[in-house]
Description:
This protein is mainly alpha-helical. The chain has twelve helices and no strands.
Amino acid sequence: MLDWRLGVILAIWAAAWALNIRLSQSASPTARTLVPVIFGVTILVLWEVTVRLYAVPGVILPPPSVIGVRIANSLPILWEDFVQTFVKGALSGYAMGALAAFAVAILVDRYDFLRRGLLPVGNFMAALPIIGTAPILVMWFGFDWESKAAVVVVMVFFPILVNTVEGLRSADRMQRDLMETYAATNWQSLLYLRLPAAMPFIFNGLKIATTLALIGAIVAEFFGSPIRGMGFRISTSVGQLALDMVWAQITVAALAGSAFYGAVALIERRVTFWHPSVRGR
């Protein structure tokens, strides 16, 4: 016999599914925008209903309403942790790693021996687990945000470097020959041909690095930090069985990471408006 609680859950899912199918068939931009909103709200509703109907203990999975109350009551703490982890650790490390990767990519593009020697080393470094490198960097740079920024630099440097190098080499051979015909210098060829052609690759690396930056900063805080930060708060809250605070931190991290990725994607659309992948959207 079908459990009535499962029937309620399936009925909510079926109703939301039917509504989304109907909206997705509409040509209205508003209707298409509502599809992901309704999908997200449906997940939250199903989460809330499932936890309430089956009386799931809060230490296993708190309902979204409890997490929302915790967020509302802990805004000063969440803001302090956000500034410590995201602004100081993730953003600063992301900026330094991206700038360093871009500068090295220019050198690698200019000198072929660097490409042959450095990129294999970069692939090796990128394969190193963060669980091993983070405690070393924390011991080197201390327990404040500087060590978290160093972990982020290591994590974002090589993905951006590899994508930028590949992008700089993506210009067509005929286009390169044309620049040589016009007696363009190497820097002119870089500025007017190879760099614009590399922009889709560069932004691909930058978008990948947005998620890596936040993950690196949070994980690095597990190995030592002052008494603030998302990673610190998650690790201590787990020990206290305060799962509502853990989920509140996860929610803030997810929103920050999504906003960060969206900002980079928006800049990409403005910079690479000429690219077929953007014109077709």
